[in-house]
Specification:
Strand order of the largest sheet: 6-5-4-7-8-9-10-11-12
CATH class of the largest domain: Alpha Beta
CATH topology of the largest domain: Rossmann fold
Number of strands: 12
Number of helices: 7
Low-confidence stretches: 274-288
Distance between the termini: 131 Å
Length: 288
């Protein structure tokens, strides 16, 4: 007899694992938590609870530091000569009794450096209750004539303000829209000949390129026309001519130093030297 083999049942296949399901569920849960947190924070902000809590924490901090003596009790200022004291106190925005640890020193320094005479400010906190302020004030080098007014400027070309006391009336006057930015370089070049530099009363910036300098008197002094380049060399040349030939003691209205190989002078009888403003210059005049 033939043996009949029993039918072998087919193996059961397990469904594939959904590997993507767990990350999706976790991400969804995280987003839900963040959304609920954001909504809660928004509600807290809108309801004013956060602001009240911050205010209460600050008040508690101030009270605690006050009990410890950590309050502004003394403010000392070093380096103040010309900046108004009341303006300094106003810029500080602090009063005696304020919590010294809550003082925003960076903001206070920025307000101080916005004052006219203050070039640099440093603030130190000395616990328990002293603030020490160290100022570096601006040093004026000239009076900038602009729109009929005279404003003090420093070496960086920063406008300080008017000379209210007349303390700086002897400073030279500079004229020209860009004169403040270039005045320091000019005066540095002129300082190479101190005796001659002391006679400078005014400097006019010409065409944004070079300078005309007035000696001895703004209205009736000799007009020195300096070159665009090699200003120092031209100035030294003028000083040498003065030492050797007393050139500046002669009746001259103008000395043109723009050409290194020649010297052009203007006398009262020379029409070019006394030309009225508004008329065209001669072809060889490069003032424009």
């Amino acid at each position: 007899m033939r043996r009949v083999k029993a039918d072998t049942p087919a193996p059961t296949r397990r469904p594939p694992k959904r590997r993507w399901l767990r990350p999706v569920l976790l991400s969804s849960a995280a987003l839900a938590v963040l959304g609920a947190t954001g909504a809660g924070l928004w509600w807290l902000d809108r309801s004013g609870i956060v602001q009240r809590a911050q205010s209460e924490i600050k008040s508690a901090f101030v009270a605690a530091t006050s009990e410890l003596g950590l309050v502004v009790d003394d403010i000392t200022v070093e380096g103040r000569n010309r900046q108004d004291a009341d303006q300094i106190l106003a810029a500080l925005g602090l009063r005696r009794g304020d919590a010294i640890l809550l003082a925003d020193l960076d903001l206070t320094r920025a307000r101080l450096e916005a004052l006219a005479w203050v070039r640099e400010a440093t603030i130190e906190r000395h616990l328990p209750g002293r603030l020490h302020i160290r100022l570096v004030e601006r040093e004026p080098i000239a009076l900038w004539q602009r729109a009929g007014r005279f404003m003090l400027i420093d070496r960086g070309g920063t406008e300080i303000g008017p000379d209210l006391t007349g303390e700086f009336a002897s400073l030279p006057v500079v004229v020209g829209p860009d004169a403040p930015q270039h005045a320091s370089a000019l005066f540095a070049a002129l300082a190479a000949e101190p005796a001659l530099a002391a006679r400078v009363k005014a400097a006019v910036r010409v065409g944004g390129r070079r300078w005309n300098v007035k000696l001895d008197d703004i209205a009736g002094g000799i007009d020195i026309r300096l070159p665009e380049a090699q200003t120092s060399a031209a100035w030294t040349r003028l000083a040498r001519l003065e030492r050797d030939y007393q050139l500046l003691e002669k009746k001259l209205l103008m000395i043109d130093l723009r050409l290194p190989d020649r010297l052009v002078v203007g006398t009262p009888e020379d029409p070019a030297a006394t030309q009225a403003p508004g008329k065209k210059s001669k072809p060889n005049d490069k003032d424009a």
